[in-house]
Amino acid sequence: MEPRIRVLKCILDSRFGGPHRRSYAMAERLRAEGIDTVFLFGHKGGEPAPPGTAGPYYLKHLQFMRRKHAVIHLLSFFLFLPWNLLRVRRILTSAGIDVADVDGVTNIVPALAAALSRVPIVWHYNDHLPGPIERLILPLVARLSTTVVVQGEQLKQIRTGSRPRLHAKTVVIYPGVDTQKFDPGERKAGARRRVREQLRAPLEGPLVGTIGNVNRFKGHAYFLQAAARIKKQIPTARFVLVGRKLETDLRCWGQLQQLTAELGLKNDVIYTGFRDDVPDVLAALDVFVLCSIRESCPNVLLEAMAMRTPVVTTDVGAVGELVHHGRTALVVPARDAEAIAEAVLAYQNMPEDQARRLTEAARKTVEDGFGIDAMARRQLQVYQSMKRPGTRGAADPLLWPPMGGGKE
To answer: What pLDDT is attached to residue 44?
Structure first.
């Protein structure tokens, strides 16, 4: 029997979101394949991730690049750097880690600790970096990583094509969707009524929504501007914005509240904050809108497709590798509120059988190409190619699902 592989999954942000949902779903699948996952989160305030679980490690001051109080955070990063390197190295040793899986190229502390401990590094490059930071960090990523993971072929070319050493190490693994969890078969009717009642949204009339933590890259302002246009055509329409208000981008939140009032939408737009029932929310929507101006490969888009929810999406990141305009979704340019509104209205005017063919094709696309099991097999191949023989630690690791304790 092959020895089990122990992975330290390092995520910079402790606030639960898409990367956490993907990582926990992946860890659950990989455990049956001989992969035990230990989670390490950088602590950025708010509730820890994921809700309802126990046992991950948390370390503060792992991030050097913050917009709010930037200088203070940078000084704190360097002040705590020796301590954090020591703590991560102790975790690597005590948990008998074979592979460090680092989410985000600015997440350099776990990568440095792994390199010092001679632990192979899988480094996920899903970040959007300013030019000077990119030029500073990518040579480090190319030097320290064993494998670099991006979430799309186009992203691989854009981000690594001009750097041969980095490009040669880079593989593509798309986000995976649990098509059993995101299955509209038994969920659709009951979830539609339950979620709408919770949101105090009428059962009649279209409910249009977007899902994503509130930051400037998610394009929520364009969603609101599109909502105002849709409202003029369909007075009964309501709009829902699901996502956490981030303490690191309160200005964006304030601007959205002001814009909502200026557009006369205070009674029509529902801000829910964070919700962990994403399948139910998607089931309740008549149209899901991805309005981002910048993305890598948005997992929530695939989740909406899996739920057979009609999708309007901006053409950003790897979106073009996930959908086909007019066949599985309606694709519009980024930063174009009018185009978003027209696409949503197109769904409302679309014959029912045409809309059904489109959403069924979207579901099949996810089943055939983006299921969590297929992506887990690809991730397993990466881990197996990096396993170091004879490096298991003496202490039992903190396994997935967490068994308790272990916070730092």
So the answer is: 60
